[in-house]
Specification:
Shape: flat
Largest sheet: none
Low-confidence stretches: none
Length: 122
Amino acid sequence: MQQRPYDGEPTRRVLETRYGDDVEIIIPPPKTAVLSPEADRNPSSRDKHILSIKDKGRLGWQKQTGYNQRSRIETQMGRWKQVIGNKLKARTFNNQRTETKIGVSIFNTITKLGRPAFEAIP
């Protein structure tokens, strides 16, 4: 069974240990993922995700789990790092706050400029 480095049981165990039941772990299993031996008696969250993908398809699973929102946020953070950079240059906290506010303002302006306007066709 081939797994992605973050799709394995060790990663899930660390997250469950660190955050307990306060967080839902949503890691997309690969297309070749197989159920664990205990899946029919005591399915893990990964098993439930695999079964959901088999039942609803990958897009249905993404919609059900909210994975698309996470993906959108990751894309936005990638854009932020490309445009603004991945480090703050200011040294003091107040200056870092100002730098961040300026960066957010610039990023929001760029985002608004790049969004298409949809209009209903009569």
